[in-house]
Amino acid sequence: MRNGLFDSINPSMKFFVILLASILLIFTSSWKMNLFVFALSLFLLIFFSKASLLAFIKSFLPVILMVVASFYSGYINGNQAEHSPIDSALLLSSRVLAYIGLGFLFSFTTNKKALIMSLIDQCHLSPKFAYGILAAVNLIPTLQREWTEVNLAYRVRRKKVGILPFGPLFNSLVNGIRWSENVAMAMESKGFEGDRNRTYFLKIYVKPMDFLFLGIFLGIFLLGMIIFK
Amino acid sequence: MSQVPAIRGEHISFRYLEQGTRILEDVSITIPREKITVLMGSSGCGKSTLASVLCGLFPENGGVLESGEIYLCGDFITNLSVRDRAKRISMMFQNPDLQFCMATLREELYFCMENYCISPNEMEEKAIEAAKIMGTNHLLDQNIYSLSGGEKQRALLTCIYLMDAECIFLDEPFANLDPDGVQDLMGLLKDLCCKHKKTIIAIDHMSDHWQGIADRFVILKKKGQVLCEIEDPRDLPSYQALFLKEGIAYPGIWKKKEITLQEESKAILSFKNFSLPRIPEKTKKSSFLFFQKKKEIKKKTDYLLEDTTFHIPEGRISAILGKSGSGKSSLLMTLLKQRSYQGSILLTCKDLPKEYQTLSQKECFKHLSIAFQNPSNQFVSQNVIEEVSDGLRRLYPKKDKDEISSLSLKLLKTCKLEDYQNYSPYMLSQGQQRRLAVLSVLSGGQKILLLDEPTYGQDYRSAKALMDQVSKEVLENKITVLMTTHDRGLAAAYADHIFVLKDKKIKEVSKQ
Fold it and tell me: Is A118 part of a structural domain of the chain?
């Protein structure tokens, strides 16, 4: 039933199309269009992607809070000449939904490594920069472990950490700088020069299917814009 | 060909900052081919810096090379590109966490091959072949983050093997490994040297595990200069006086502690039928910072420790030995309320036994404190004296500022840190940082002190200074120390009680 068509689309192209869609969305002011965009994203996520729905639902829970909050604030403060409060409330909260939908559509269907490789291939991103990002992303679990340890150290020493944890942040920053030097030297020691003179195991191409699918996506999007004007 | 030395450095002078002091001064060193050379020297003598300079990583990544010429396999180093340099020499750094830029070993191997422009069609085959030879087949597709320290080192050696560099420079490769893990890796290195004709240079604080493996030892003195070269490892015993003078450990340097305390001491922590699950159950604080997919494995619960009973005596030093990954650190984490457990832990303070589970984390931290493996994670202020006085202020709330600062200074003096009182803790050397961390933990006045690998990566001199300080505190203030370590000699020298974690049980072993 579900197929991974949207997952396999060229990441850079997907990125720019979704970026274009979200820019176009700025120029509309209809809550119906917003809900349409959200529904479209949801539809693609469910039927054209193999992304874990459980993870999606989990990440969606905090969004509900944001939607309710923006609805409420729109309802309270949105009493303007052209719009009734319920209109502004709907517009505000559905706008949040629409952007979250587009964002999730991109992030849940895109592999980070494929995205970076595609940025090198299609957007001529320098490998030095690209691999730097990749190394940083792969360091996140280590960073997370260190972060809990720093915080634990503060608690063991019975130091209070406020809402803004400046102390632990300082520790992590100092360590982070050391780490980045260390990782950079380790990469260099593996022969990484950062120039384009290298081969790629994972090469990302632009397929005709990408144009077709993203064209249809944009078409439906524009159609929505016209209908829900 | 073998006439040309693998590395030749002449009159190297190097400093990190334009105006700073010289780290290396007029160092000349020659490393012969196809041999295992061990570089030794006290902490802060510039070993690691020398390694990076010889590998060409400095001054490219910082620092100033004032003078000196380096030849790798006969070629002048500045004429070589990064790629050519990496073909001649490959470096393995101290911290295995910071050497990978990909998520799995397979990807890391591909990354190495991409750097050398190897055709993508050959990559898979080559990666598998290298993994087979280095015995890392089963690690290929595992997440590197989840590997143990030893496995990471092995994975890294696989990369190095694959890149086929002529020299391999190892910076304290065994700092994090248990003796079995060391033997394992040592066999691999020996193979690389003998079968694959590689030159291996290793930096280490300890000479014991290199016996029978290393071909030659080089001892460095201050500023990285070569003090002496021992061409025949059999001569090692005759250099003991020199080792001692330079503060480097040799086999049997730790003298066994004489048992002076005769009276029985009560147990301060009693573990009864204690079990520790391998996969920690969810802690209260879940991280919302990064959405991480966690695959929850619903298997039969696997235990690190199972139904074990032991007692930690009060006012003594207890050491826990055991393989890496066997659960020593997890045990300490349990005492910090980071993990759930089954069974009971009784904490007896002032003759009042309390069940550990009923205490809040805050109450626990009134009684116990920890010095982590990585000291830079636990500094809470921006200068050295503040680290100590922070705890003292809490301990003696009635004393005024001057009294606190004179007390702090006194404490710093015991560890020879008084000259650095206004420095940032991050500017101290590794050994100094660790001593400061232990001092700051001691200043909090808690009665139980946990030390996680207190002497890891330290030379004999700083390890001794640190442990002497701890022993003194134990005698004077009746605190209880529970430490984990891989160093049996150290455990025998300082611990009153030695526990061994084996087969999911913790048992006390007699010291003889």
Answer: no
Q: Is B128 exposed, middle or buried (0-12, 13-18, 19+ CB in 10 A)?
A: middle
A102 falls within a domain: yes
Q: How far apart are CA A183 and CA B419, in angstroms?
A: 33
Q: Is residue A115 in a domain?
A: no
- CA A166 to CA A162: how far, in whole Å? 8
* Predicted local confidence at residue B480, as pLDDT: 92
Best mutation target among B102, B115, B153, B433 (most A Cβ atoms within 10 Å) is B115
Q: What is the pLDDT of residue A14?
A: 94
Any CB–CB contact under 8 A between B293 and chain A?
yes
Residues A132 and A160 in one domain: yes
List the single residue in A153, A154, A197 with the smallest CB-CB distance to B117.
A197
Quote the distance between the C-alpha of residue A161 and its chain's center.
Answer: 30
- Percentage of residues in chain B with pLDDT exceeding 90? 21
Angstrom distance (rounded) from CA B461 to CA B375: 18
Residue B290 predicted with pLDDT over 50: no
The candidate with the shortest Cα–Cα distance to B504, out of B312, B325, B373, is B325
| Contact call for A142 and B145, based on CB within 8 A | yes
Over the stretch A71-109, which tens digit does the pLDDT of each residue have?
998 888 877 667 788 888 998 999 999 999 999 999 999
**Higher-confidence position of B417 and A118:** A118
Please tell me whether residues A85 and A152 are part of one structural domain: no
Residue of B nearest to A198 (CA): B117
Looking at residue A61, its pLDDT comes to: 92
User: What total of structural domains would you count in chain A?
Assistant: 2
Nearest to B53 by CA among B100, B85, B99: B85
Are A213 and A135 in the same domain?
no
Question: To 5 degrees, how large is the angle CA B409–CA B414–CA B419?
Answer: 55
**Mean pLDDT of all residues in A117-129:** 91
Q: Which residues pair with B450 in a beta bridge?
A: B370, B482
Interface contact flag, B82 A175, Cβ < 8 Å: no
Same domain, A106 and A133: no
What residues of A are in contact with residue B361 (Cβ under 8 Å)? 155
Interface residue B121 vs chain A (CB under 8 A): no
What CA–CA distance (Å, rounded) separates A181 from A90?
49
Q: Are residues A101 and A28 in the same domain?
A: yes
Q: Which residue among B61, B89, B103 sits closest to A184, beta carbon to beta carbon?
A: B61
Q: B46: pLDDT confidence band, cut at 50, 70 and 90? A: confident
Measured between CA atoms, the residue of chain A closest to residue B56 is A189
Instruction: Give the closest-approach CA distance of B450 to chain A in angstroms.
Output: 11
The position carrying tokens 């890391």 is B108
pLDDT at B282 (0 to 100)? 46
Residues A88 and A17 occupy one common structural domain: yes
**Structural domain boundaries, residue A82:** 6-110+207-227
Could you please report the per-residue DSSP string of A82-133? SS-HHHHHHHHHHHHHHHHHHHHHHHHH--HHHHHHHHHHHH---HHHHHHH
pLDDT band (50, 70, 90) for residue B398: confident
Q: Does A95 map to a domain?
A: yes
* Alpha carbons A186 and B31: distance in angstroms, whole number: 22
The shortest CB-CB distance from B82 to any of A144, A156, A191 is to A191
Assembly ipTM:
0.86
Are A12 and A58 in a shared domain?
A: yes
Write down the pLDDT at residue B285.
Answer: 42
Instruction: Choose the closest CB to B116 out of A134, A146, A191.
Output: A191
Are residues A159 and A212 located together in one domain of the fold? no
Q: B165, B158, B240: which is closest to B207 by C-alpha?
A: B240
User: Residue B159's CB: how many other CB atoms inside 10 A?
Assistant: 26
